[in-house]
Amino acid sequence: MIDKRSYLGIPLARRSTRRWLVIGTWVLMLLLVAYFPALLRIRPVNFGYSGGWAFGIGLLVVNLLSAKSGRGIVRDFDLRSSEEGPADYSFMTPEDIVARKEAERHNRLDEREVKARNAAHYRAFTVLRWTGSVLVFAAIADQSPSFVDMRESLLLLFFLLTQWLPQSLILWTEPDMEDQP
Amino acid sequence: MIKKATYLGIPIRRRKNRRWLVVSYWIVVLVFLASLHWNPAMQSLLLGRFPSHGWAGPVATILTSVLFGYLTTCLGGVFERGMLSEWDGPLDERDIRVRNAAHFEAYRIFRMIIFPFALILAVVFGTVWSHYQKLAAPLLLLLWCLVFSLPQSLILWFEPDMEEPQ
Prior knowledge:
The complex is a heterodimer of chains A (181) and B (166). Chain A is mainly alpha-helical. Chain A is built from five helices and two strands; from the N terminus they run E-E-H-H-H-H-H. Chain B is mainly alpha-helical. The longest helix of chain B is centred in the middle third of the chain and has 34 residues, at 93-126. Chain A binds chain B through residues 40, 77-78, 115, 117-119, 121-122, 124-126, 128-129, 132-133, 135-137, 139-143, 145, 148, 151-152, 155-156, 158-159, 162-163, 166, and chain B through 47, 57-58, 61, 64-65, 78, 87, 97, 99-101, 103-104, 106-108, 110-111, 114-115, 118, 121-122, 125-126, 128, 133, 136-137, 140-141, 143-144, 146-148, 151.
């Protein structure tokens, strides 16, 4: 599920290192969540919305670890699994088909990876369910302006959880990689 | 994964029936939320919009929580009620696979819709005295329904027909 042995110079083969990375990035995220309402209210200087850049920082950090297009540490979640049917090879030359099959063989998630991916999403969704409930409860229980900050922070936290929790769980739980010969 | 042959008197062995049930469920939710947005009486009852009564807010919050708690768990999964087995109960290997795969798909849908959702809510939360405020409650309650019912809906939608008893 993790296809890089190091990322930005940080070795990822050991689970303990990956766990420190997860803790570090979540601390950064939670700081951003806590200060998000204050950042939103800074007067805009060059951009239309002052909070846009704070949101941008969050998205950037999320993207660093995201499982999209091979950019991050965790393999792309949407890669074809071995359980899915054959791909559509119509209108392709034989050479292209061979090249594509080779690429697919390399990119395909195996059974263990699909299992780990889906289990991580189940656990993440459980967290999402209860965070969503707290957000809704906090927002409808008191609609006074004094709680606006809390609602905005909770909303950002919920957003970050939807984007990034499964990847964190995978980084946290995947065992140490075998040493290279 | 589906633990009952009938639900509210409706046979759910056939996938077709389950799909109608899922569609009906989401229609009920959406009609309910739309009426909450448009109907002042519903807003007063469920959101405590009575300017002169301090107690109305907490009472309305409890009422809304109970009502939506009931509505969102009626498909099952989260608690021991509804059509589906409890997620954390004793499930066999196939059920666990189906449960986890449904959550993966639900999460994928969620990840796609959350950005516009969060953006609208951020604008709504940020503008304190605007007519957009009225949107906040229905949107938040829709979010609640989605986190509690989307994986269940996917399972009920995609699970094949059950075998007839001998």
